[in-house]
Amino acid sequence: MADPELEAIRQRRMQELMAQRGMGNPQNSEQQKAQEDAKSDAEERRQMMLSQILSSEARERRKFTFEIISRSSFIGS
Question: Which of 9, 15, 39, 74 is the most exposed place for a label (fewest CB within 10 A)?
């Protein structure tokens, strides 16, 4: 599973938990959903551009570096 997909799943789950606790209202949830969709679309376009620009070796290095950064920032939170 790609990192943007994982982040979208995390955000949806957080919204579900907030809604269960009565912390979110429907209008806010709709706005957040629209923002998440826009963010996801932008990330998808970005990934498509990078796949066209970068060589396969460069994509692998970028992916590996991003995974290391993601793990270290997750551990630090």
Answer: 74
Give every CB contact of residue 50 below 8 A, 6+ residues apart in sequence. 59, 62
* Nearest by Cα to 65 from 49, 50, 45: 50
Residue 1 predicted with pLDDT over 60:
no
CA angle 9, 29, 74 (to 5 degrees): 35
Q: Which run of H or of E encompasses 7? A: helix 3-20
Please give the C-alpha separations between residue 23 and each of 11, 28, 52, in angstroms, as whole numbers.
14, 10, 42
59 token code pair: 């994509």
pLDDT by residue (tens digit) across 40-74?
999 899 888 888 888 888 878 888 887 888 777 66
Q: What is the largest CA-CA distance in the chain?
A: 48
Using the predicted structure, report yes or no on whether residue 24 has a pLDDT greater than 60. Answer: no
